[in-house]
Amino acid sequence: MSSYRSIVLVKQVPDTSNVSGNAMKEDGTVNRAALPTIFNPEDLSALEAALEIKDRFGGTVTVVSMGPPKAADVLRDCLYRGADRAILVSDRRAGGSDTLATSYILSQAVKTIGEFDFVFCGRQAIDGDTAQTGPQTAEKLGIPQICYLTEIIDVKDGFATLRRSLGNGWEIVRAKLPLLATVVEEANEPRPQAAIKMMRNKHKRVPLEVADPAALAPEDRLEQWSMDDINADLNRCGFAGSPTKVHKIRSIVLKKEGSVQVEPTEEGIRGLVSELVKDRALG
Amino acid sequence: MSKKNPQGEVWIFAEQEDGQLKDVALELCGKARELASALGVKVGAILPGHKVADLAKTLFAYGVDKVYLIDDPNLARFASCPYARVFETLIEKYAPQIVLYGATPVGRDLAPRIASATRSGMTADCTDLQIGDVVDPKTNETYANLLHQIRPAFGGNIVATIINPEQWPQMATAREGVFPKKDPEEGRTGELIEENVEIPAELLVVETIERFVESKKVDLKGARIVVAGGAGVGSKENFQLVFDLAEALGGAVGASRAAVDCGWIDRDYQVGQTGTTVRPALYVAVGISGAVQHRVGMQDSAKIIAINNDPDAPIFSIAHYSIVGDLNVVVPLLIKAVKERVVLD
């Protein structure tokens, strides 16, 4: 069996289906602390794609996440599902990064890991829906990108045959490794966490998660990298490395005036239809 | 990194597939024309492909001043790396100040790769674009004529304006329908500039083996009446109510993102910031709460009817007719009334 080295980029995101009041900070960035968090759904599909490569063709799966110490939650989750190695890139100097700075930091982390065959990431994260970080990371690594991966058909002799969605159809491509693929939710059914792997990994923490990092036993330690560990140029990280700035935030004031209240009764609705016909909104 | 060039042109990506220009490219022509007029510069269209020179005429008619044609068999079909190389090369050569892309699967694949290579800022899924001055509150420095990239922000009823003060070109994507397509001006001409961009072999490492494309099944943008269902509809089975009402009204079916995410209906039907923007004569929102991301995609409809059992649902703030009630009761009543089409005096 051949052996492929896969790296998966995952993100912990605020659960946008449970947004509460103070979700934004005054500077226009997301107040992540105020929200429940989840594993970005399409990143789980990306993890599953990497685990599928490992199952079918052999190899290793390394996951990387960039975020606050709490983001170690999603790394543990990856270990429960079968990832071999997990690394959290966490550093205050990375705060405020837009997609360009984020892709720079992630690409530096990937380069620090070393040689690889595949980088997988979700097509987009539900907190911004920009779908920019994947292609930007591919460019920074100087490798091709296969966006909207839906099926891994075969991997052989340094080439991968993959199916991807075109929105209005699909195509099968044959691409030289290494490559980066962004994965869509339709690609697979992410496997559940395995109880035995959970038992083995649930005590693991990154040093920033514990009060006394020195007391963390080596077998309980999750890898944590700073900007220095990945040789990042600080001018390209965080606010300094982010060309886009939030200029202003405008709250939309909802007003109810001008709306005609229609009673939910047969009579009310007949009246409405009649008015629409007269207004020629209905032909 | 490309230079900041206040005299730079406003560019659009003239996306075509099998020799057909995408509608969104023509929509962007109109917006680019408006931005370029405000800036006093020309509109350029980047047209990569093979044997697509004919399309230049159409682009001129829609307001483009200069078409940069890059004709190469390797560009006949979209491929990320070769297309990105074309843009990187031309951006370096001409230093445009703004580059706009349709937020199609192709645009969303291509644009970020270019932004990364040119180290410029980019904003996805803008719902408006304007030109304006910005004063930096910290330094008091004035940045004249920046592109204001406006989009709903995460977290509810908030719209954010994003700027890119230093690292140009300023880049943005917009979904189909966000900017209305202007009427073409037949006979309008412009300058056709043929460019050669060398595509090295190492960029041609992704080969298409098989491809299947079907014509668009859903035409929301062209529909006179749209009936859209949201999370309140409750289930896939119950979504039939939305289809039935649409049929009775002779309209198209749409959906909110919540309904799409629940798997009740295909993503092609999604109305909103990350779906299609519609401006029908009549929009009926069934069980849609009306998050700002949805409202930006339908608020310009001539008449809006909202049906929701929550009287505080934000959708009512933009509805012309508000029906607070159980959609399972209201929709059948509406279907009945429409079928009978009784005009009361």
Q: What does this protein look like?
A:
- By secondary structure, chain A is an alpha/beta fold.
- Chain A has a single domain (4-236), classed as HUPs (Rossmann fold), CATH 3.40.50.620.
- Chain A has helices at residues 41-57, 72-81, 99-113, 133-141, 195-201, 266-278, and strands at residues 4-10, 12-14, 37-39, 59-66, 85-89, 118-122, 145-156, 159-165, 169-176, 179-183, 223-225, 245-251, 260-261.
- A 9-stranded mixed beta sheet of chain A has the order 9-8-7-10-6-1-4-5-11, with helices on both faces.
- In chain A, helix 2 (72-81) crosses helix 5 and helix 3 crosses helix 4.
- The longest helix of chain B has 17 residues, at 23-39.
- Helices cover 25% and strands 27% of the residues of chain B.
- Chain B has 2 domains: 10-203, 3-Layer(aba) Sandwich (Rossmann fold), CATH 3.40.50; 225-340, TPP-binding domain (Rossmann fold), CATH 3.40.50.
- The mean pLDDT of chain B is 93.
- In chain B, helix 5 runs parallel beside helix 8 (327-340).
- In chain B, the strands form 4 sheets. In chain B, strands 7-11-6-1-4-5-12 form a 7-stranded parallel beta sheet, sandwiched between helices. Chain B has a 5-stranded parallel beta sheet with strand order 15-14-16-17-18. A 3-stranded antiparallel beta sheet of chain B has the order 8-9-10, with helices on one face.
